[in-house]
């Protein structure tokens, strides 16, 4: 159960904000959105920022969603994993990869499951999430695997962003929609 009640859009939430969230979400408010609406200013900034992160980056959607799913696993953010595992699959990820992430089997990533760029993303995500700082070798491997600085900056931004998201979800006990009452 969430620590603060979810809000239904009402007079305290500006309709233009609710409409913008509905457009980004394809017509549906999620529990996360209903929590964010407790603070319209925060919800507005969140919607704009996450909208850009999800739709405007040049980084491969598969690599983006791989990083997001791993952040979710590492932080125990079931809500985040619940929403992003299907996105990872749509972007070309596999059920076997998701299972390996859920088992935290990335100390020795199976090259049959993860290509070189995916392994670099996993290592960078792990270090950024667990250690905050990253080893020079890990960072260099990400640069080499992604091939350009823009993609590296975008990946680092995605990892940092979804660490923020998972911490918000966990602190407030936001539940996946199927579980919420």
Q: Would you spell out the secondary-structure blueprint of this structure?
A:
Layout: H1 15-25, H2 31-36, H3 40-55, H4 61-75, H5 78-90, H6 95-102, H7 116-131, H8 136-146, H9 149-172
Helix pairs in contact: 1-3, 4-5, 4-7, 4-9, 7-8, 7-9
Keywords summarizing the entry:
2 domains; mainly alpha; 66% helix; 181 residues; elongated; AhpD-like
Please describe what this structure looks like.
With 181 residues, the chain is mainly α. α1 packs parallel to α3 (40-55), α4 (61-75) packs antiparallel against α5 (78-90) and α7 packs antiparallel against α8. The termini are close together. The mean pLDDT is 92. The longest helix is centred in the last third of the chain and has 24 residues, at 149-172. The protein contains 9 helices and no strands. The chain folds into 2 domains: 15-55, no CATH class; 61-172, AhpD-like.
Oligomeric grouping of the chains: single chain
Radius of gyration: 17 Å
Question: Uncertain regions: pLDDT < 50 for 5+ in a row?
Answer: none
Taken in chain order, the helices and strands follow as HHHHHHHHH
State the CATH architecture of the largest domain.
Answer: Up-down Bundle
Number of domains: 2
Strand % is under 5%
């Amino acid at each position: 159960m969430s620590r603060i009640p979810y809000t239904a859009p009402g007079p305290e939430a500006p309709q233009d904000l609710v409409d913008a969230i509905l457009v980004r979400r394809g017509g549906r408010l999620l529990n996360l959105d209903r929590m964010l609406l407790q603070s319209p200013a925060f919800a507005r900034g969140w919607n704009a920022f996450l909208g850009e992160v999800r739709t405007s980056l040049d980084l491969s959607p598969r690599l983006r969603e791989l990083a997001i799913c791993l952040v979710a696993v590492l932080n125990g953010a079931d809500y985040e994993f619940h929403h992003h595992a299907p996105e990872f699959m749509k972007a070309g990820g596999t059920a076997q990869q998701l299972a390996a992430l859920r088992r935290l089997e990335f100390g020795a990533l199976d090259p049959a499951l993860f290509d070189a760029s995916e392994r670099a993303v996993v290592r960078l995500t792990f270090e950024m999430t667990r250690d905050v700082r990253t080893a020079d070798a890990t960072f260099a491997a990400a640069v080499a695997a992604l091939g350009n600085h823009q993609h590296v900056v975008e990946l680092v931004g995605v990892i940092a962003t979804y660490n923020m998201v998972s911490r918000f979800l966990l602190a407030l006990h936001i539940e996946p929609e199927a579980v919420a009452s």
